[in-house]
Amino acid sequence: MVSTTDATAPGIAPHSGFRWLQLVIGIVCMAMIANLQYGWTLFVDPIDAKYHWGRAAIQLAFTLFVVTETWLVPIEAWFVDKYGPSIVVMFGGVMIAIAWILNSYADSLAVLYAAAIVGGIGAGAVYGTCVGNALKWFPDRRGLAAGATAAGFGAGAAITVVPIAQMITASGYQQAFLAFGIGQGLIVFVLAFFMRKPPYAMPVKKRQLNLPQTRIDFTPPQVLRSPIFWVMYLVFVMVAAGGLMVAAQIAPIAADFKIANEPVGILGFQMAALTFAISLDRIFDGFGRPLFGWVSDNIGREHTMFIAFGTAAAMVLLLSAYGHNPMVFVLATAVYFGVFGEIYSLFPATCGDTFGVKYATTNNGMLYTAKGTASLLVPLASLVAASYGWQSVFVIAVALNATAALMALFVIKPLRRAFILGNEAAAEEAAAGSAETGAKTA
């Protein structure tokens, strides 16, 4: 472990406008990779209609994408630490473009799966780099910075979901894959030229009783040996599993509920229920990430987790009971994604608070692999739904979120505080012992 110091260093000032420019670049890059995950649901049924591979087989591509996107982030983070964020994001832009171009030509499940893996590699390179860079530039506002960056991933799909749906209807899903793949990849590639990391490790400037932050930088091996990391990992998996199930299955759920094309009007806007739901989901998701990040900066990470996870459980319960009503379907899923997306701001911020800033990109990358672990349950949701109906899937999601809410408050909170205070006390004692030994020697 390495102690963080308050030494000033030449270079870019931590509070200069340059760090906000870096945040904006990260947000835009994240928006460009959002549809690789959140737009996928629009392609499932058109692909199945053309090739009749079955939803479960097609959704395996989604799982491969998420697993590859998440589990390789620690490796990609190592490249960020060694070569800087620019080259890694540039590589990611190329890979996501290739992935959707492959999807546009995929005439077999093997090609579809290969495209998912390529897309996952590219998305992980962009996602891990942008979030890690935000944590390094904003140690004083980790929740807000991580939330704003993750909001790009959540809200990016809101901007393009309607054009993608329209292009699929007008020109076919293959043309939509091709056009949006090239466009998204090109924008990421260009913005990558302007990404920079901080010139030095920026220290935490003040203590907050409700927001414990370590002054020690823990290396990745040390993090993997700490119990608190694995408790956080478990809770991340529990919450992400429910959200990924709903994100991947929202179109099939709407179709089975026979409300996908039912018109819904809210505040003067009227659309088909499914299109409206996906659009509103992305808006709420994007808005919720920085909002809950900011809230957690003020009331604490674990209290914010409890509120968000508990609300998510309530919304899935509402969807289970009244989801056949188009209006309830649209609003319940919107609120659900508004509180679900905060895991992508709260967990990175909590990771940075707990393990320090120096290795924040790699440490957060290791925690982010929990999303990949959770994605393994997505195909299972299709099988459970086919055998027992969507109600069974909803029950699982409610149980996961409710349990996670309780664990955040009664397990993560005390364990994390004990970890931070215990290690800092040990470090101070070691430093005092060394100083005493040195004085006696002199």
Summarize the structure.
The protein is built from 18 helices and 4 strands.
Write the layout of secondary structure elements.
Layout: E1 2-3, H1 17-33, H2 35-38, H3 41-51, H4 55-71, H5 73-83, H6 85-105, H7 109-137, H8 142-171, H9 173-192, E2 216-217, H10 220-224, H11 227-256, E3 263-266, E4 269-272, H12 273-299, H13 301-322, H14 326-340, H15 343-355, H16 360-375, H17 378-388, H18 390-441
Antiparallel strand pairs: 1-2, 3-4
Helix pairs in contact: 1-7, 1-8, 1-9, 3-11, 4-7, 4-16, 4-17, 5-6, 5-7, 5-16, 6-7, 6-9, 7-8, 7-16, 8-9, 8-12, 8-15, 11-14, 11-16, 11-17, 11-18, 12-13, 12-14, 12-15, 13-14, 13-18, 15-16, 17-18
Q: What does this 3D model show about the protein?
A:
The chain is mainly α and 442 residues long. Helix content is 79%, strand content 3%. The chain has 18 helices and 4 strands. The strands form 2 sheets. A two-stranded antiparallel sheet has the order 1-2. Strand 3 and strand 4 form a beta hairpin. Helix 7 runs antiparallel to helix 8 and helix 12 packs parallel to helix 15. The longest helix has 52 residues. About 2% of the residues have low confidence.
Entry keywords:
single chain; 442 residues; mainly alpha; two-stranded antiparallel sheet
Mean pLDDT: 84
Q: What Rg is obtained from the alpha carbons, in whole angstroms?
A: 22 Å
Class from helix and strand fractions: mainly alpha
Q: What's the multimeric state?
A: single chain
Number of helices: 18
- List SSEs in N-to-C order: EHHHHHHHHHEHHEEHHHHHHH
Instruction: State the strand order across the main sheet.
Output: 1-2
Helix residue percentage: over 70%
Number of strands: 4
Label the overall shape. globular
Which spans of ≥5 residues are poorly predicted at pLDDT below 50? 4-13
Percentage of β-strand residues: under 5%
How far apart lie the N and C ends?
27 Å
Please summarize the sheet with the most strands: 2 strands, antiparallel
